[in-house]
């Protein structure tokens, strides 16, 4: 995080450091950052396996698994693409307030560090829930400052993830998520939330 963004978010240097870890700290074996690893843990939890996700790709269940990925999830994306029912929807071309698929289409919906850019996070989460099959799972990450509550940036100066001189409006941060981020999932109609931490508090994925 750069100084101007730290000031806009009104966070401490220690908080900025653990946000930086999610992107900068990587696995020596696969090169994945903490964000991708945590998201992979959430997917593996849904599949009920401790084996690497690549192992599940060639199984009968893996060939039948239907996945919608909205926005790329870093190094996890090439693995997800190998599943038989994989569909990619680029954000913001895919509007998370009007996901262009019928209800009950997918076993898993995945998005990574995207929800904070969406104007109405609860509605976007409810759209993800709509396109899930019964018993399906939403797996996602958002940047979280764990020591405070979520803050809506409406009425505040525009804040971007990326260079403000070249960033487009889809990179505007609409919501700064805090310790109550899980409540947004419940408000969207889900009845269970699990949190998968890797290097807490640097990265957590929700399912």
Give the H and E element order. HHHHHEHEEHEEEHEE
Question: What is Rg?
Answer: 17 Å
CATH top level assignment: Alpha Beta
Helix content: 25-40%
Question: In total, how many domains does the architecture comprise?
Answer: 1
Q: The CATH topology, please? A: Rossmann fold
Major beta-sheet overview: 6 strands, mixed
Low-confidence segments: none
Structural class: alpha/beta
Q: Order the strands across the largest sheet as they lie in space.
A: 2-1-3-4-8-7
| Individual helix count | 8
Shape label: globular
For the record, the CATH architecture stands as 3-Layer(aba) Sandwich
Whole-number mean pLDDT: 89
Find the count of extended strands (DSSP E, 2+ residues): 8
Structural summary, described in words:
The protein is an alpha/beta fold and 207 residues long. It has one domain (3-206): Rossmann fold (3-Layer(aba) Sandwich). 31% of the residues lie in helices and 19% in strands. The chain is built from 8 helices and 8 strands, in the order H-H-H-H-H-E-H-E-E-H-E-E-E-H-E-E. It has helices at 3-9, 13-24, 34-47, 53-57, 60-64, 77-80, 121-130, 181-187; strands spanning 66-70, 85-89, 106-112, 132-141, 151-152, 175-176, 195-198, 203-206. The protein has a 6-stranded mixed sheet. The longest helix is centred in the first third of the chain and has 14 residues, at 34-47. It starts with a helix and ends with a strand. The model has no long low-confidence stretch (mean pLDDT 89).
């Amino acid at each position: 995080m750069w100084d101007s963004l730290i000031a806009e978010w009104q966070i401490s240097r220690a908080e900025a450091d653990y946000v930086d870890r999610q992107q900068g700290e990587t696995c020596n074996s696969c090169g994945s950052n903490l964000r991708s690893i945590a998201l992979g843990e959430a997917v593996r939890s849904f599949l009920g396996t401790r084996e690497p996700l690549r192992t599940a790709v060639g199984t009968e269940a893996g060939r039948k698994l239907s996945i919608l990925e909205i926005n790329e999830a870093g190094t996890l994306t090439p693995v997800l693409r190998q599943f038989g029912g994989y569909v990619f929807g680029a954000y913001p071309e895919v509007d998370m307030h009007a996901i262009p698929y019928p209800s009950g289409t997918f076993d898993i919906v995945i998005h990574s560090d995207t929800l904070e850019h969406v104007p109405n996070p609860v509605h976007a989460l409810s759209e993800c829930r709509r396109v899930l099959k019964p018993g399906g799972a939403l797996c996602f990450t958002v940047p979280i400052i764990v020591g405070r509550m979520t803050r809506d940036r409406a009425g505040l100066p525009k804040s971007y993830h990326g260079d403000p001189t070249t960033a487009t409006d889809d990179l505007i941060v609409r919501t700064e998520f805090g310790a109550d981020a899980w409540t947004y999932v419940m408000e969207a109609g889900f009845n269970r939330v699990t949190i998968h931490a890797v290097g807490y508090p640097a990265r957590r994925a929700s399912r």
